[in-house]
Design goal:
Layout lengths: L2 E6 L1 H19 L5 E6 L2 H17 L5 E4 L27 E9 L3 H11 L6 E9 L11 E5 L7 E5 L1 H4 L3 E6 L8
Parallel strand pairs: 2-3, 2-4, 4-5, 5-6
Antiparallel strand pairs: 1-8, 7-8
Amino acid sequence: MEEKRIIMDEKAIQRATARISYEIIERNKGIEDICVIGILSRGVTLGRRIAEKLSELEKCSIPFGGLDITPYRDDGSPEGHSERTDIPFTVQDKKVILVDDVIFTGRSVRAAIEAIMKRGRPKSIQLAVLIDRGHRELPVRPDYVGKNLPTSHSEVVKVSVKDLDGADMVCIFSGDPGHSTR
């Protein structure tokens, strides 16, 4: 039987995305040449929130896009997949803030970096994640983390966002909740 624990509620997620936004501004000494790209699907929602917070804090518009990494993944064939990437700006010479909901093995991030590099040569790529659960298979480390959440391989972390799931929360499941092993 699966057991579910709520790790972050709506307020905790809001605080984490606000803190990440402040850290981005501080590390980059402002937001010059910054753009935000969220990885489909929940990384897009979180990335949009970060871009909006950056815009609010710095009083200017931040380029934002969504990235579909399916064609770049190393764990299957994208046959019949219709790409849903929407990046309406160039990444050339930009500081790309790549946003995902959970980092686990690092393979999604590797695929995202490959997809971004196909679009141009950014000045830098910085990684922001809501949850870092460890267990890397690749040498990838996030620059900005909402919450470090050490887990076992058998546990599943599920991020829910209002836009897609009706509520903002992060849950951890033990057992098989019928979700991917994120």
